[in-house]
Amino acid sequence: MPEKLPPTLIIDFKHGYATDMIPQVRQIDHFETAENVVFEQSGAARKVGGSERINATAMAGGPNVMGMFDGWFAGASGTWTEKFFAVTSDSKVYREDMDGTFDDATGAATITADAVPVFCQFNDLTIIFTSARDTPLKHVGGTGNVASLSGSPPAGRGAVAHANRLWIYGTKANPSRIYYSAYGDPETWSGVDTGLFDVDVNDGDELMGAVSHKDNLILFKGPNKGSIHVIEGRTPGQFARRKLLKGIALQSPNALIEVGDDIWFMSRRGIHSLSATQKYGNFAEADLTRFQRGFFRSRVNLGQLARVSAVNYAAKSCALWCMTLNGQSEPNLIFGLSYIRAQEEGIKPFLWTNRSCFSAATRLNPTSHLEEIVFGTTNGFAERQDTVNRKLANNSAYGMNIKTPQIILAPPAPRGDQPVSLQRMYLKSQPLGDWDVIATIQRDSHAAEEYRFNQGTSGFLLGTDILGIGFLGGDMGQTAVANLVGTARSIKVGFKQAGVNEDAHLYEAGIDYVPVATTTESA
């Protein structure tokens, strides 16, 4: 008669971070912690890459980098030129000519200190607006300094290109008004081909952001009560406004991004989906972070939401929001939503920590031509993210950290509190180098115990040391084995990797256990 194999708890990495799920489960459907990870198409979890500075020398004075933009210019010759722009807290505009040096391009322009910029590309111009409603600025052709946008445009807090016009919203005198320019001309603001809309004036909010989406212009009001409006039509005679929804307040114009054929945006409560709002017309279906409400209530400094910036990291199928930890004053926490296997497994939240992220932008790397994420720092640097090296730009380490909720191992019958004896743990991963992934197991309320799984060995080396650690596998994957100790009714399992230039790429873990005689205390 064949030997009966012990039951095995399988831990895969197809789940996201949640704060509002029950803390004790029989089957894993969320993680209590998922820090400094990216989720792979395979279902694996990998330690996110490091960061490195674009500019070896800080911008003068080491200011906060308030916002950045990847500008492209065709010019008269039709030859594309890429320029990367930054606005800093000391009222400067910098231009990087894809050479690693940020040149001061402020010229005679006046920008309010600490103003948050909103960038727009239209008619071969990079156009800059600020939260202080400074005079709109333009950069022509990617050379020289910025200058004032001509034609006496309204000094709004932001703008968007839509229907081949520039739309400027939220002036000081009329915070609920949006203006549109002449067709194809961002520097003509008078005449029969221009106009404006007033959007629920004096309703306790102002226009906070706008986006051109599926042939419509979507307007977001905030930061207090919140509403969403749609302008339909393509010509002044056809333009018409309707209200879509009340009760979701946008906090920052830079906190809304396009993700596929959807718009994701942030309120005080979390991240929302525009398509779900349009389809279902209620808050619940539109809330992409309904299981992270505790995170937004307790870990995020809600007084700093006006500084939140977001990017869609399409190359890794995730969206990122740069936030400020509660009790601190500068953005230093990245909240992410992975949509890489959304249809099969849903959207997976995660966090990146220990990185300066005052602002965020995407750009094409001038050498590889791959899309890259860039964070603006608090000391005058622009730093590309998720780089091949596994260290931060200041040469410090950061830790991948994944934790499950407490997992009940005791069978539901004959008694739900029957303890089990832990036997072995398996960790299937990609061998990357001679360093360890540390797995922790907390049995019931006992202190966590550590088990180390080396990531540099492949081939058949089972039982090579006194701890009973072994490896089964090859160059594309390995299964490491460790003998476990003790009994438990439930366990919490964690995986950590925090070494400088050390990596982790985890496929799956398994824990063998066998029921034991019923006792009143676990060992």
Question: What's a concise summary of this model?
Answer:
By secondary structure, the chain is mainly beta.
Overview features:
single chain, 8-stranded antiparallel β-sheet, elongated, 7-stranded mixed β-sheet, 4% helix, mainly beta, 523 residues
Report on the structure:
- By secondary structure, this protein is mainly beta.
- It is built from 4 helices and 42 strands.
- Strands 1, 4, 5, 35, 38, 39, 40 and 42 form an 8-stranded antiparallel sheet that branches. Strands 2, 3, 33, 34, 36, 37 and 41 form a 7-stranded mixed sheet that branches. A 4-stranded antiparallel sheet has the order 6-32-31-30, with no helix packed on it.
- A hairpin with a 7-residue loop joins strand 7 and strand 8 (81-88).
- The longest helix has 7 residues, at 274-280.
- The protein is elongated, with a radius of gyration of 26 Å.
- The two termini are 32 Å apart.
Percent of residues in helices: under 10%
The Rg value, from CA coordinates, equals: 26 Å
Euclidean distance between termini CA atoms: 32 Å
Q: By helix and strand content, what is the structural category?
A: mainly beta
Strand content: 35-45%
Low-confidence stretches: 459-475
Note the main sheet: 8 strands, antiparallel
Shape: elongated
Query: Roughly what is the average pLDDT, rounded to an integer?
Result: 91
What is the number of helical segments per DSSP (H or I, 4+ residues)?
4
Question: Count of DSSP E strands?
Answer: 42
